[in-house]
Amino acid sequence: MTFRVWAPKAERVRVRVDGVEHAMTAGDGGWWSAAVDGEDYAFLLDDSTDALPDPRSLRQPSGVHGPSRRYDHGDFEWTDGDWTGRALAGGVVYELHVGTFTPERTLDAAIGKLDHLVDLGITLVEVLPMNSFDGTAGWGYDGVLWGAVHEPYGGPDAFKRFVDACHAKGLGVLLDVVYNHLGPSGAYLDRFGPYFAGRNDWGPGLNLDGPGSDEVRRYVLDNALGWLRDFHVDGLRLDAVHALQDRRATHLLEELAVEVDALSAGLGRPLTLIAESDLNDARLVTAREGGGYGLQAQWSDDLHHCLHVALTGETHGYYADFAEPGALARTLREVFFHAGTWSSFRERTHGRPVDTRVLPGYRFLAYLQNHDQIGNRATGDRMSASVSPGLLACGAAIVFCSPYTPMVFMGEEWAASTPWQFFASFPDPELAEAVRTGRRREFGAHGWGESEVPDPMDPATVERSTLLWAEVEKPEHRDVLDLYRSLIALRKAHPELADPRLDEFHAEQLGTVLVLHRGDLRLVCNLGATAVTQSLDTDGGWVLLASGDVALVGQAVRLPAESFAIVQAIGSSSNQPTSASRSANS
User: Fold this and answer.
1) Which residues pair with 196 in a beta bridge?
2) How many Cβ atoms from other residues are within 10 Å of residue 447's Cβ?
3) Over the range 341-376, which residues count as b (16 or more CB within 10 Å of their CB) and which as e?
């Protein structure tokens, strides 16, 4: 086979294959090559004795500091030849971390839990980063070799088995990828060429617009296309795209969208790009014909923050703005709370309005919890640790009855008791100590006692964060799971609940009561501590689903504290209760 590597500044490059060094030949554009047979290989630059892994490695069996191993995509036998993909519109996303999803912490073990997701009603599984990082346990956002599947999870074949198994069960797969920075250990890219340009909050950032950046951009694009093409992944979640520094006329994200659209046409299945962005700028998900980047969707943290404040009452830090009266209904209607308005946390105006006449709601993901919003709390506590079951049910109903794409974080569907804490396992003791003390100081500065912050390097932190699947059979957890199943089933049975047209959607907030208008359906939530009777703009009907002992009384619905009801009006096109419904006197 031919080994190739981009090293434009090097005067001499060698490749060590199975322990034997071979000279490489310089070619055009700074690329070096050598035709050698073998399996394990690493590169040596100029007179250095450091044998470095391949920046485009597909397998790292000895970790991120060891040699790369040749890997042939053609050797894997796929069984998903009839797979036609899963569109995001109308779907439900499930976010999971392989290392804490099961006690085995492997992709093969995760396959054994896919029936649970199918039964729940999930359509797309979003997997946290698979790329290689230093150590055995970690979130995955400290990756340094973006094309190699983390070996402790099972390596590349295991990820292919996982994707193949998902497709066999009708589940699409989204992969979380991190192009905005590299981790602190094993990031050797800058030794090969001008890959880096400055730093951001998390580490070295990529050179996307300076000298030599054409190949750096190609490095990102080829990596993204490889996951979609060679691993049969159905979409990518792009981590923190606001940290991508790119001053070119065509932003990297737009270039990526163009190439992914071309690949989608060639493969004959939809491919989805979902951005995580702090910009509150809908240009990311606006079609290129309309002057946007052409991504399919982005996360909506503003909606999460509004829900979090409404359900928990927390108003510290960046949550303060979202305590404004009516913030939840307004954000449900308009997508962003900060839309060219003042952000006290940032001490400046932030964001821009969304044109709800032309942008559909499914392009924005709605969620009660996600890995960041749980894991970046000092103790990694889930919402269920401090919020009543009634309010959790209301929050879930709001998410699933909204015009947005719902996303569930693993274990949320049964109110898992396990936290999800920040953890890592860097072998370098100095780096490990720096991460440990830095984490504690960060939260100490925000008012947490440093002793409250779990040691991210302690294996017990990973153990605490691992789902306890036996909980599913306990009544208090089973009730929550049944509710989630019912909400998802109702969303599928009644198309108006998944209707993404924002200009046809209305939400109103009346004190502690929130009402969502979904065609002939009404979601009424009582977020308060006392019972209420809420007037409806209908002549009665049926209660399709409720979380408490509710009753229709004339043209009103009576709800106990911290409960919701989904009401179907008389005279609608579907005027009989469905199998997911329960009837009530009108």
Assistant:
1) 206
2) 9
3) eebeeeeeebbbebebeebbbbbbbbbbbbbbbbbe
The pair of three-digit structure tokens given for residue 495, joined into one six-digit string = 């198309």
Active-site residue flag, 302: no
Q: Give the C-alpha separation, 431 to 184, whole Å.
A: 8
Candidate list 239, 301, 302, 496, residue with the active-site label? 239
Helices (H) and strands (E) in the chain, counts: 14, 29
Closest-CA residue to 497 (of 401, 394, 433, 383): 401
Q: What CA dihedral angle connects 36, 39, 40 and 46, to 10 degrees? A: 10
Q: Is 219 helix (H, G, I), strand (E, B) or coil?
A: helix
**Exactly one of 215, 254, 276, 499 is catalytic; which is it?**
276
Residue type at 333 in one-letter notation: R
Q: Tell me the pLDDT tens digit for each residue of 321-368.
A: 999 999 999 999 999 999 999 999 999 999 999 999 999 999 999 999
Residue 78 has pLDDT above 80, yes or no: yes
Amino acid at 17: V
What is the layout of strands, in order, in the sheet containing 13-17? 20-23, 13-17, 40-45, 68-69
pLDDT digits over 233-262, tens only?
Answer: 999 999 999 999 999 999 999 999 999 999
- Produce one character per residue of 223-249: b if its CB has 16 or more CB atoms within 10 Å, e if not: bbbbbbbbbbbbbbbbbbbebbbbeee
Which pair of structure tokens corresponds to residue 541? 């009907």
Whether 276 sits among the annotated catalytic residues: the reply is yes
3-state secondary structure of 331: helix
Distance of alpha carbon 452 from alpha carbon 446, whole angstroms: 12
DSSP-assigned letter for residue 112: T
Angle, in degrees to the nearest 10, between helices 301-312 and 327-334: 160
Q: pTM of the prediction?
A: 0.95
Q: Which residues contact 387 (CB under 8 A, 6 or more apart)?
A: 311, 312, 395
For residue 389, the surrounding DSSP H or E stretch is helix 389-400
- 31 CB burial (10 A radius; 0-12, 13-18, 19+): middle
Contact 135/426 with Cβ under 8 angstroms?
yes
Q: Which of 121, 129, 72, 58 is nearest to 98 (CA)?
A: 129
Rounded Cα–Cα distance for residues 386 and 434 (Å): 31
> Which pair of structure tokens corresponds to residue 269?
């299945």
DSSP H or E segment with residue 166: helix 155-168
Give the separation between CA 454 and CA 383, rounded to whole angstroms: 18
Task: Provide the CB-side half-sphere exposure for 441 (13 A, CA).
Answer: 6
- Tokens encoding 458: 């302690």
Predicted pLDDT at 442 = 79
Structure tokens at 579: 């199998």
pLDDT value for 511: 92
- In whole angstroms, what is the distance from residue 184 CA to residue 191 CA? 15
| DSSP class per residue in 370-388 | -HHHHHTSTT---GGGTS-
| Cα 152 from Cα 106, distance rounded (Å) | 7
Question: What's the whole-number mean pLDDT along residues 314-319?
Answer: 91
